[in-house]
């Protein structure tokens, strides 16, 4: 099974990317893992027109194909002003629901301080309705991110506890990926008669 990690800071060399790289190095149980930083793909602002996705050399189709072949996702967003990254929300509006439906996702918020809960709540509330990504019950909030995950070994008890929690969350994500595989197969090969009529959540 394939894991796709998407970090959604609008800055290069970000703390979100650091967290993504740490997660990618862990023993997560997946056969392969890929990490993409959204800020490196020149995605256009989504206006509802499918042709917009490919404007100006956008890397959207590369990302879309990666999502299509992934069995599970890790979506990482920095917290800016109590909100999820606009870049991530834009991407989640653009992606093809046929490529994302019934795939589990681990949501991760990154904060330089003690906050981080609001982006998780925002994503669960209104970012996953039409693409039908399934957020697993676990999520991660990486608080005071500059003080953790910087070395091969934990530097303090909080860093050690966080690493253990990341390992557990990846284990659960892997379990959900296998469990939802039969649903994804049925969605693709034995579709409900009116499946396309119900492509959007209520």
Automatic annotation (TrEMBL):
<dbReference type="InterPro" id="IPR029039">
    <property type="entry name" value="Flavoprotein-like_sf"/>
</dbReference>
<dbReference type="Pfam" id="PF03358">
    <property type="entry name" value="FMN_red"/>
</dbReference>
<keyword id="KW-0285">Flavoprotein</keyword>
<feature type="domain" description="NADPH-dependent FMN reductase-like">
    <location>
        <begin position="1"/>
        <end position="144"/>
    </location>
</feature>
<protein>
    <submittedName>
        <fullName>FMN reductase</fullName>
    </submittedName>
</protein>
<keyword id="KW-0288">FMN</keyword>
<dbReference type="InterPro" id="IPR050712">
    <property type="entry name" value="NAD(P)H-dep_reductase"/>
</dbReference>
<dbReference type="InterPro" id="IPR005025">
    <property type="entry name" value="FMN_Rdtase-like_dom"/>
</dbReference>
